[in-house]
Amino acid sequence: MRTIFVTGQSGTGKTTAAAATALGTARQGNRTLILGSDPTDTLGTALGTPTGATPVTVEPGLTAVRPDPSAALRHGLVSLQDRLAPALGLLGAARLDDEELTLLPGGAEFALLGALSTAAYGPYDVVVVDLPPLPAALPLLALPEQLRRYLRRLLPPERQAARALRPLLGRLAGVPMPSAGLYETAEGWDVALAAVQAVVEDPETTVRLVAEPGPAASDLLRTTAAGLALHGLRVDALLANRVLPDDTADTWLAGLVAQQRKTLKEWASAGDGVGGADGAGGAGGTGGAHSVYEIPHLGREPRGTDDLAALRVPLISAPRHRVTWPLTDHSSEEGGGHGGLYVWHIPLPGAVRDTLDLVRRGDELVVTTGQFRRVVELPSALRRCTVAGAGLREGELRIRFVPDPELWPRA
Known about the structure:
Oligomer: single chain
Shape: globular
């Protein structure tokens, strides 16, 4: 299954571009599912077909779903209360009824992740996900990995081995012990989160960015590039949406056209080429480079499949390699043994030195660039090393490690 995440600056036609991408993909002959995240059904407006929690067929090969965050919240909280009943009773907590639960902030995002975990096992060739706007989309994509890490810290799987001792320990301590049901619930959450994490980390998964050409969009895309690379996500295309025609006699519009053309020229020089409205363009590059495609302004808000087809968004291309963090071994250059040197290369295009932070915590590395942060486990070889230094060069963070004599086998 191929997954395409679509996000961009708020109000730039992100949902419309996602709908057009899904439509074009379906008309390529792919069984396509599009997932919406906006509770106001902007997805249904763009498709010309109302969408909801029940899958709806827009046209043969294209299915649309907009998860119901309220239903997901109610089901999750009621199930959690059932699992924690002994502890809640000890605290004298009053039970929340299904009817009194209302949607909380972030509920739509969690519902979207739940739908994505289900779609991973569905009969689809391509799933197009209309993500929330930038920069909130990136923490959402990083959430499954982080939540699984939290679960492992709070409820380590190895502690389930003491399941038979819990009743005895509970009587000795005089307080309720975590029940088997709680661990089963955590295991269920871990399975669902693992399914979403597998989709995000799949080599064929790509991100499609949508922006209106202008200075504000350039600044946002520059800071977003580092966040995407930090989580190993690759951009397959930058859709320059609502591009005005060059041949305008209106002097007011002429100024906007000139600004758009200047921005498009800058974006093209940063990528591998500019794609026209017919989807013809460069093949795109690796790392931070990508193709730029101009999507014309129709003079109206696109509504329905005919308007979406008129946008002529680029078709999905063959997937390329995922953004990787290569590790180079310089041990042989410096005599080998515990006197060697290893360098971990982390691509961070657009990163600024003043906003970059690096912390070693045991066998983990905490990397922060601007508002984005990721905690990753060190490769096995580096766990026996100490950090000798780091530097940002040409959009790449290079961390130097030297073997710890106390942990590294001597020759």
